[in-house]
Amino acid sequence: MLASLGLILLCQLIGEAVVRGLGLPLPGPVLGLLLLLILLMARDRFALLARGPLRNDGVETASKGLLAHLSLLFVPAGVGVVQKLDLLASHGIAITLVLALSVVVTLLATVLTFRLVSRLLTQQDAR
After folding, report:
1. How far is residue 92's CA from residue 106's CA, in Å, rounded to a whole number?
2. How many helices (H) and strands (E) does the chain have?
3. For a disulfide at 28, which of 7, 19, 44, 69, Cβ 3.0-4.6 Å?
């Protein structure tokens, strides 16, 4: 599990270094997660090509361990919110409107994506 956590953190470090080095307008951990996704997809593809058993290197186990304690990661965010209560009080209505609008846009995008994929799968099954 320690090696798997090391791989996750290494991908995050590489993503952070690339973002800072190139000045990309993207969070480094997001790029690191994309790198980890590519690595895991390549691992699965090579396992299928070799027709060998899929080696479980523990990344899944490590990620489940992180997800089990995900609530601990919200503590620093909660402290930050409490520290900025004056800012929230002065811009509370605008923040609430933006949050509500973003929820509606996210729901619409999810529904449209689901409908598009459903239609594509139905067409593929008809062939």
Report:
1. 21
2. 5, 0
3. 19
Q: One digit per residue, pLDDT tens: the chain, 127 residues?
A: 777 888 888 999 999 999 999 999 988 889 999 999 998 888 777 766 666 555 566 777 777 877 888 887 788 888 888 888 998 889 989 999 999 999 999 999 999 999 999 999 998 887 7
Contacts of 17 (CB under 8 A, 6+ apart): 28
What tokens appear for 24 in the block?
């990309």
Write the CB contacts of 44 (distance below 8 Å, at least 6 apart in sequence): 54
Distance CA 42, CA 2 (A): 21
Is residue 31 within 8 Å of 18, Cβ to Cβ?
yes
- The span from the CA of 64 to the CA of 59, in Å, is 9
Q: Provide the strand spans (E) within 12-94.
A: none
Contact 36, 8 (CB under 8 A): yes
CA distance 101 to 98: 5
* pTM summary value: 0.52
